[in-house]
Description:
By secondary structure, this protein is of the alpha+beta class. The chain is built from 25 helices and 33 strands. It is 34% helix and 19% strand. The chain has an 11-stranded mixed beta sheet. The longest helix is centred in the N-terminal third of the chain and has 31 residues. About 1% of the residues have low confidence.
Amino acid sequence: xxxxxxxxxxxxxxxxxxxxxxxxxxxxxxxxxxxxxxxxxxxxxxxxxxxxxxxxxxxxxxxxxxxxxxxxxxxxxxxxxxxxxxxxxxxxxxxxxxxxxxxxxxxxxxxxxxxxxxxxxxxxxxxxxxxxxxxxxxxxxxxxxxxxxxxxxxxxxxxxxxxxxxxxxxxxxxxxxxxxxxxxxxxxxxxxxxxxxxxxxxxxxxxxxxxxxxxxxxxxxxxxxxxxxxxxxxxxxxxxxxxxxxxxxxxxxxxxxxxxxxxxxxxxxxxxxxxxxxxxxxxxxxxxxxxxxxxxxxxxxxxxxxxxxxxxxxxxxxxxxxxxxxxxxxxxxxxxxxxxxxxxxxxxxxxxxxxxxxxxxxxxxxxxxxxxxxxxxxxxxxxxxxxxxxxxxxxxxxxxxxxxxxxxxxxxxxxxxxxxxxxxxxxxxxxxxxxxxxxxxxxxxxxxxxxxxxxxxxxxxxxxxxxxxxxxxxxxxxxxxxxxxxxxxxxxxxxxxxxxxxxxxxxxxxxxxxxxxxxxxxxxxxxxxxxxxxxxxxxxxxxxxxxxxxxxxxxxxxxxxxxxxxxxxxxxxxxxxxxxxxxxxxxxxxxxxxxxxxxxxxxxxxxxxxxxxxxxxxxxxxxxxxxxxxxxxxxxxxxxxxxxxxxxxxxxxxxxxxxxxxxxxxxxxxxxxxxxxxxxxxxxxxxxxxxxxxxxxxxxxxxxxxxxxxxxxxxxxxxxxxxxxxxxxxxxxxxxxxxxxxxxxxxxxxxxxxxxxxxxxxxxxxxxxxxxxxxxxxxxxxxxxxxxxxxxxxxxxxxxxxxxxxxxxxxxxxxxxxxxxxxxxxxxxxxxxxxx
Length: 836
């Protein structure tokens, strides 16, 4: 026995030593790639010396003697901080994720190669301005300079993820940057999925009931703030042509199948998780400093690291500071010395699906409007999959665009047998100068210069909010399709490709889109709300964000005669829900006044109603009221709609407040939804609300215990910043993800969008990863924040150092002054050109 114990002790000792050695070697390799913010480098590709000051928050402030060197340095710092993120972004655009990550990402690769986004980006290089070409080349040279430095100095391959996912890192090219912008456009355009959702609903319900569950936008267009409006809509849906479609729910799986990893890597997100944002600006007539102010908080998917990277950059003829997009040489949201800009998603309906009939006698042909047959264009694509043989696919195209396959845009749900569905989208062209527009924006001096640059934007379409020393403006930047006025579908449902009347007939001229340039009111604002009241086909879109955020924004802007920088920053963190204020009285009035809370025997039910009766609608993470209310609306939506929609309810799973408003106000007979059509009795809306409250309380008791006062919205509304891919793998997600409890919700200015379904229905997964406030009284007094940290290295101190500040609604000063950057600086990097 003693001999056995001795050998066991020896074996355990050897294993322990090996583990220690393995950990030490692993940590050595990982630590080599940790960002170093101090040093001197002699590099090829520079014209002169460059200084990079890393301020106290690890924000790089680039100082160069030439413009090209400034963009070279931006490429270098992006690669230093975010090389893995950049590699994933370009692989997504190339359709090469599966070669690294395996078969799970195959559908993303297939979509990217089917749309040929990288090929279009490659061909678009020639249409960029000479200045933009030069910028792209300098940026790429900077990225590659850092990659070479990583190899020369053995800096751990540049990021720890590369030790797991090996292979050589290809040089960065200008096309990579252009392609990343194309993928961003894809993620911010949701017209195709909107069409499928509406078509399936029209096939399941009569038009007047579709008008309830998919209501028209309820208030007038707004760019200039005025009187805030909310409320239901009284127009029914139009007689859209869906006779050529079939809902194939019985033939294929109709459950929700959006993979969060694939969405993070570039797949089109669910409709409610496409781009959003708030932006507003006032001129000097409305500020305490007598100079303009501008605030912007673009809402995108949350990730670790953030989509955004803060940077300041100064060359020979320009300077700028703000939120950059790693992989591209742009300050997408920021300001220079005389102009500031912000972005919000414009919701332009820039995608249409066309259902093409296949020739039953020749599968290589499809029907044309003149009843003749055209031959599909075909090309073969190859997709490498790690651990598997290369897969080969044949991609077809029609006169409208590429043919969709599999589950792309959910088009398989409505494509009849003997047909295929093709996508027409403004971005599917190489004549795309969106990158040139963004570069020109950085060099613009006045609002009028920026408006001229915006005319070059193709996609993604954005509301561009502007301010200079004298005024403010907002314009819709991006291609806006014009459809035939006689169109049967109006772009709202998939169209028959064999009918010429459904085709696009051109684009709305740039100067005729919605805009307000230096308005006399002195204010502009947008919360993804309707920006045009134009009649079809000059309508811009039928799809807009719910009006609650713009109502709150208008109310707060109009409440004060004069605004300040700090007031704007506070408004970005405003968590009062105008939606809750509108919906709660409708659904709770009978329970409050007819039952009378003292008479309710259930203590939890009585306490919940008492709390909601005193609640002001603030979605505070510390309180129980937001959690009770949101779960009630979610349960109520299910009670109202699940029986009528059946399997289609999966598409609508989650809270739908405009629908609930319309039902409880009984607009155009919408109260019929309160009746359960499976029973002989006629249930009322009061009964539906009462039963739904019981449903909600049962779920919350199960998950959070029976103490109603101890429930907290923040425990459920957790912002989850996921690392790709380790944030999707348990237990690695514990170490790679960043989580913060947050206030706000789907319909507050402090927006934290939730999925509304699944085991964690109210997790915050889509929010303002960047917030900025520019003060033109002193632009060096401006404020900014991103949602995680500057570094993409999971073991860096600067991986999550801004996350808690962001979650609290805080911001950091962002100055263009060297002295401010050097105060408390983490280090200075000096770049010098290699002598010939």
